[in-house]
From TrEMBL:
Keyword entries, A-Z: Hydrolase, Protease, Serine protease
Organism: Massilia arenae
GO cellular component terms given for this protein: outer membrane-bounded periplasmic space
Record's protein name: S41 family peptidase
Source superkingdom: Bacteria
Region annotation Disordered: where it falls in the sequence: 456-478
Pfam families reported in the protein's UniProt record: CtpB_N-like (PF22694), PDZ_6 (PF17820), Peptidase_S41 (PF03572)
GO BP terms in the entry: proteolysis; signal transduction
């Protein structure tokens, strides 16, 4: 019963175009191998079912829709991250990895009562200029009720072609009646990197998602931080709620802080091209032609004391970065155990405008650890607040998902089972707590990271289980 309750009260993370994957795009046309032992009997059975549906279903079904759903079901049955991408889904996936999409420019989450809550309107976006505010609850999109609607479906309704309009009906605490905002969609350029000096000598660098521009944007931000304070004493790399993204982005971020030629991650799968090692060299992280964005970084960043912040929402590419920095003892990992998505999805184009997103490999840290269904265990378990980990303690991990890929070499870690009273307490606390503003003065985990960098004691989680220490990790020789 505890698991059922826990799953029902999971709150969606703030998203704009979340990827949640470590992806590689197939650069060449892919021709699957011909298998002479095709299951003819089963294929005939599929054709028979198709014929029965077409001839006897209560109403006509379009061929294209029926076949697309059949393909989607076949791929989705493999694991939680494999999927058939129809033209619309394929386009949205490309937009997300490019850091561009057409919409209104808001970060959203699912509220506890099932509405879509505005986490923040993006600066200079159509929603920002229309007057949408943080904390507004979207109750209708173009007149359609949204309570209980999956967050991905709500995102699809708000996106569209540039110049088209969408009407959002919102409930606002200080407004007696619902408010209607008709907003013109336009291309939104999403910035995945933020940075600032949080104290004299101490910098904060946040990566929200790994996209094509991430490495270039990170390099520019690090340059700016160094110009602001050349006598840096420490850096906090914030990967909390970073759902992943492009593998190249993760390699580039880790490469900024590790020696050149250091192994960042390796992958292993069925095909020869899925068994690879990736190193801190430009050919492994550069997606665009031109100068290496990391080449001109000040050498100080290779040795600057670091802390990496993670939580249950840190997945995939962010776990690659945290795992590599942990294995090389380059940074202390602080926060909550990560999601545990240690598989690579490769995008195989099918025809002109569709694709299959297929799990093709597991990835391994430099020390050979599989993160799949386990995650990164922090060196310093620290809750989101002094009082506890809030809804972070109720979120699902990879090991909770049906049909998840096994770890392959070690134990798996599902979400901790709390008793019902404890779950109710956590949920009640979260409902009354203002959403955490990462990088602010109220950011408890950031404050503990700064204490560690200064050599001071850190307030560890009262629920902390014995964790693996840095001394037990070490990169394997190649």
């Amino acid at each position: 019963m505890g698991s059922t309750f826990k799953n029902s009260c999971l709150v969606g993370l703030g998203v704009v175009a979340g990827v949640g994957l470590t992806m590689q795009f197939s650069a060449l046309a892919f021709k699957p191998p011909v298998d002479a032992s095709m299951p003819i009997a089963e294929l005939r059975q599929l054709a028979d079912v198709y014929g029965v549906i077409k001839s006897t279903y209560v109403e006509p079904v379009e061929d294209k829709a029926l076949l697309s759903e059949a393909i989607a079901g076949m791929v989705a049955s493999l694991d939680p991250h494999s999927a058939y991408l129809d033209p619309r889904a394929y386009r949205e996936l490309r937009e997300g990895t490019e850091g561009r999409f057409v919409g209104v420019g808001i970060e959203i989450a699912v509220s506890e009562d099932g509405y879509i809550e505005i986490v923040t309107p993006m600066e200079d976006s159509p929603a920002y200029h229309a007057g949408i505010k943080e904390g507004d609850l979207i109750t209708r999109i173009d007149g359609h009720p949204v309570q209980g609607t999956p967050i991905d479906d709500a995102i699809k309704r708000m996106r569209g072609e540039p110049g088209t309009r969408v009407t959002l009906t919102v409930a606002r605490k200080d407004a007696p009646e619902p408010l209607d905002f008709t907003i013109e969609r336009r291309e939104i350029v999403q910035k995945s990197v933020k940075a600032k000096m949080v104290e004299p000598g101490y910098a904060w660098l946040r990566i929200a998602q790994f996209q094509e521009p991430t490495v270039d944007d990170m390099a520019a931000r690090l340059q700016a931080l160094y110009r602001e304070d050349p006598d840096l004493k420490g850096l906090v790399l914030d990967l909390r709620n970073d759902p992943g993204g492009l593998l190249q982005g993760a390699i580039g971020v880790a490469a900024a802080f590790l020696p050149k030629n250091a192994e960042i991650v390796s992958t292993n799968g069925q095909l020869a091209d899925s068994r690879q090692r990736f190193y801190a060299r430009p050919e492994f992280y550069m997606l665009r032609s031109g100068a290496d964005p990391l080449a001109t970084l000040p050498p100080a960043f290779k040795n600057l004391p670091m802390v990496v912040l993670v939580n249950t929402g840190s997945a995939s590419a962010s776990e690659i970065v945290a795992g590599a920095l942990q294995d090389y003892k380059r940074a202390a990992i602080l926060g909550s155990q990560t999601f545990g998505k240690g598989s690579v999805q490769t995008i195989r184009p099918i025809g002109r405008d569709a694709a299959v997103k297929l799990t093709t490999a597991r990835y391994y840290t430099p020390a050979g650890r599989s993160i799949q269904a386990r995650g990164i265990v922090p060196d310093f378990p620290v809750d989101e607040t002094l009082e506890g980990d809030g809804l972070n303690a109720l979120r699902m991990r990879e090991a909770d998902l049906q049909h998840h890929l096994s770890n392959g070499s070690g134990p798996e870690v599902a979400t901790r089972e709390d008793d019902i009273e404890e779950q109710m307490r956590l949920l009640a606390e979260a409902r009354t707590r203002k959403p955490l503003d990462y990088g602010s003065a109220d950011d408890f985990q950031l404050a503990q990271a700064l204490r560690h960098l200064k050599g001071q004691d850190v307030v560890l989680s009262r629920r902390a289980e014995p964790s693996t220490t840095l001394a037990q990790h070490g990169p394997k020789s190649d």
